[in-house]
């Protein structure tokens, strides 16, 4: 009898643990009331300021709490007037901006021309350490407020910006840029209230904007509660009571939470769940094109990759990659084989031209072999594709690409992956020009314009021209396209520039990336915009 | 006793300096973190230079280390890349992980020692064999498997718990994660206790106690258990540090925003200040836990005296 007591203790302990867990589960599930939905989130990498946010997680919030002069239509991607009453120009260089009447920030302060000019000056000024300062580099006077050599700035404000009235201001660019107004939907161009400048720390701990949502509470690193702002004057008023953004370290946990009915919306379905997402969620799974293109870039600062004839090797490599098979087996059709250097979200009117790459993006092992041979063979007999192994499922596709190349070239050592531990180190090595072969280059558009897919990536010394490719003909065509005031003509010129990229195979286009999302039965009207961010204000909660 | 404690505390200084220096160098070897702050594009050189200056990365490593250590002694652990002071991150992360550790340790003590005593007293019995087999299985299955399996079964299939832990991380939410975190150590505690009990059961003082006619319960708790617990206490003591630092996997699975989460993010973003700050505190916890364990010996075993 006595012996048994010890065993029963253990049983009691286990039973107590199980009962207690059961209570824990039951108590918490009835938290959300009304029409508030919960959505997965990641901790923003940089301080949450408009000109300091360059990744999706921070951008998601800015998209909810700010409205700029323009807004990109969540379906077509067209830049439409939001706060702008008009943006007029006669010479594609001097612009007069008039702001609509009646807009205020959620703290009641009216949105004026000054709200914009102050915000842009803040974003451009070197002393504010804003990561996105270069967005203002087209505006005259940028050199003075943001000297490239890091020296002392000789001005605090951009000379190209002038407030001319309560609701009007003028912008003078340092060069002609006809599609400049269409770039103004980017969050960096959002207006800022005085509170931002007067008490910066308080603003950062609870940002105030002029969008359809206002921040109710923000616990850094774990949760942000946004509530619909009732007095929002815009046309895109929130259709729900609010959104609770919850930080998840691992998107697998977010997905499990969605399955358990603990979370309403996951906007990044983990690669490992793609196989069963259809059976798990049925039509509550979204897989729509986003403005993201994955390419392989080359180090043109390396003599091996820059000698004449190497374009044949690059074309050969491109033809050795079986894009269709990789997108189907590894990505389960959440990627589409690329046939140009832009994205389907631009639409054909916006410059997307399927098939522009032509045969150079089609898999053909025999041709690939021939091209590589004609080009003088692979430098050093082998290509090493460098990528960062910490995020995404880069390892899987790089290995698949290498397999495909090895098979096509009949050489088991033609291609190997070269993983780098962290994204920061990967970027660091690219900045230091340490790449010795092709490397992963992903491009998520800032704004849905063909210009954004070409100029930052291939223009001489552009900010994302990681391979340091340089081509006079290309630069010239881009300059001409930017100066062109007729949009259709400008787009045709951009496409000609893209043909130069193709003829040199400056970078190998791999696939267009889709945005993916899964949502609970409570939600309807869930959509992803071209930036692969859910259109929160349109979501209905039952 | 007092002198012993002072000596031990002094010994901590070189260990502390060495450990922090190693971590500092390791994070530094990973490369330049600034390049990762600007997304898929090159930071413009002027901004990059300013950011480097802001985070003190423009100086030679030895100088960075000295400045950092100097600041640490004044309570300034630096700033994370998202502009939050590291001390703020600690204030939010450590309470969560401490709660998780407490739950885990409780499981180890309550279940581990109980099972150990039961099996130790009945060696060769079916109960003993079964428990041994189970511990073998628990030890051999990696934590992330147990974690994901329990999460799926209890959280999704049966709906007993929420698969993820809320930011407040209350004790009742931490029971399953705590059990997962404790599982392997728990199995070790069971085995340690079992061996120790089985050994001491035959010792003279137990036989004397039984011969004196003491009730069985008193023999076990006062005489047998107290002496048999010494190796177990050592193990649990060192485990406190291991659990707090090693919770990365468990915290990721259950989305607990504790030390493991902050460390993981700090490493991914190569944020020296976050990583070194957290590891520094973990090193301190580890050292103090060890000291406490050594002092506990004296309490448990009257034969041990510190001069």
Characterization of the model:
Chain A is α+β, with helices and mostly antiparallel strands. Helix content of chain A is 32%, strand content 19%. Chain A contains 17 helices and 19 strands. In chain A, the strands form six sheets. In chain A, strands 11, 12, 13, 16 and 17 form a five-stranded antiparallel beta sheet that branches. In chain A, strands 1-10-9-8 form a four-stranded mixed beta sheet, covered by helices on one side. In chain A, helix 10 (310-319) packs antiparallel against helix 12, helix 12 (365-374) crosses helix 13 (394-409) and helix 15 (450-458) crosses helix 17 (487-504). Chain B is mainly α. Chain B has two domains: 1-81 and 269-307, no CATH class; 93-256, MetI-like fold, CATH 1.10.3720.10. Chain B contains twelve helices and no strands. Chain B has helices at residues 2-29, 45-54, 61-73, 86-121, 126-140, 143-157, 175-200, 204-211, 216-245, 248-253, 259-268, 272-300. Chain B is globular. The N and C termini of chain B lie close together (5 Å). Chains A and B meet through helix 1, helix 7, helix 14 and strand 16 of A and helix 2, helix 4, helix 6, helix 7 and helix 10 of B.
